[in-house]
Amino acid sequence: MNIDKEKPTALITGFSSGIGLAYAKYLASKDWNLDLISYNKSRAEEALLELNHARTNVYLKDLSKPESIMELTQTIQAPDLIVANAGITKFGEAGSFTSKEKKDLFYLLCNGVIDLIEAYLPEMEKNKNPRIVIISSIGAITPMPKSSIYAAAKSAIHSYGQSLSKEMSQKGISVTVSLPGYVRTEAHKKAGLDHLKEKVPGWMWIEADQVVRETEKASLKGSSSVIPGIVYKLVRPFLQMSLANRLWNKITRRKS
Ligand SMILES: NC(=O)c1ccc[n+]([C@@H]2O[C@H](COP(=O)([O-])OP(=O)(O)OC[C@H]3O[C@@H](n4cnc5c(N)ncnc54)[C@H](OP(=O)(O)O)[C@@H]3O)[C@@H](O)[C@H]2O)c1
Q1: How many domains does the chain have?
Q2: Domain of 160: which CATH number?
Q3: Which residues lie closer than 8 Å to 244 by C-beta, 6 or more apart?
Q4: Is residue 150 situated within a structural domain?
Q5: What's the pLDDT tens digit per position in 33-49?
Q6: Is 50 left (phi over 0), alpha (psi -120 to 50) or beta?
Q7: pLDDT one-digit tens code per residue, 128-158
Q8: How far is CA 237 from CA 142, 154, 172, 233, in A?
């Protein structure tokens, strides 16, 4: 194992780009050991070069499959910090996805995150300052037309994280769910939604680094949730109101 036992270890899923890579860079700058997981080999190799951190172990696994989580949790020791970040955006009308597509997406964004976390809870409890960070989405608390399965999975994992945070506070494990809005990453391009970069106003986009900084701050404080970016913090109280929601969808050009 490529680790220094004096230093804390983080397990990050989806490290090869976007928020996951920004998280890996941030923790590398703080001298952490890193267990990094993603699926695509060439993207992982590129990210590793960019990261340039010696104490790193990389695992290539498809996290939409339960057996991948089982294999990983049998291989990697309980970390001090889990960053459950891996994910994709799927865009399409309700009814347009096959059962397998829906099942895989839900496992990647929700059930697999639960399986990963729960495999480690008993051992993490014994660590010094154990923390869990779940990257959900602002879609967990606002409707996302044509991304209903994505929003449902993000909502379910948000709810799980909120309950787990309360339950684990007695055991000394900090659990924080982060709910980012639009973040400049590869996610939209991969989902065929590159046009959103033109359509959604510039002031609504935040950088992955900012998501990491604000999420880490909230996690170290023991907050159960965080919404990165001032714009999203300001609109959050109004997101459940239908008038505010119509306005929101208009600004972001999402048709309901
Ligand atoms: N960007 C946004 O606007 C935004 C907003 C709210 C929430 N989020 C959430 O933030 C998280 C990170 O997304 P991002 O925006 O940083 O996107 P990204 O740049 O596309 O990165 C996604 C990461 O997840 C990995 N991944 C995807 N599917 C995987 C699978 N089946 N098995 C293993 N790894 C997989 C990718 O690895 P590969 O290289 O192997 O594909 C990549 O490392 C996601 O959960 C996303 O839903 C993003």
Answers
A1: 1
A2: 3.40.50.720
A3: 235, 238
A4: yes
A5: 999 999 999 999 999 99
A6: alpha
A7: 999 999 999 999 999 899 999 999 999 999 9
A8: 11, 18, 29, 8
In a domain? residue 4: no
For 244, phi and psi rounded to 5 degrees? -60, -35
- Structural domain range at position 17: 9-251
Ligand 1 mean position to 91 CA, how many Å?
A: 14
Query: Could you tell me the pTM of the whole model?
Result: 0.95
**Ligand 1: nearest atom to the Cα of 60:** 33
Residue 1 maps to a domain: no
215 assigned to some structural domain: yes
Choosing from 135, 182, 207 the residue with most ligand 1 atoms within 8 A of its CB, the one to mutate for a pocket test is 135
Q: Measured in angstroms, how far is the CA atom of residue 10 from the centroid of ligand 1?
A: 17
| Phi, psi values for residue 35, rounded to 5° | -105, 115
CA 41-11-216 angle, 5° bins: 120
As a whole-number percent, the residues of the chain with pLDDT over 90 amount to 79
User: 254: which 2 tokens?
Assistant: 């999402």
**CA–CA gap between residue 245 and residue 243 (Å, rounded):** 5
Q: Which residue ranges of the chain lie beneath pLDDT 70?
A: 1-2, 240-244, 252-256
Residues 6+ apart with CB under 8 A from 93: 146
Ligand 1: centre distance to CA 6 (Å): 30
Through-space distance between the first and last CA atoms of the chain, rounded to whole angstroms: 50
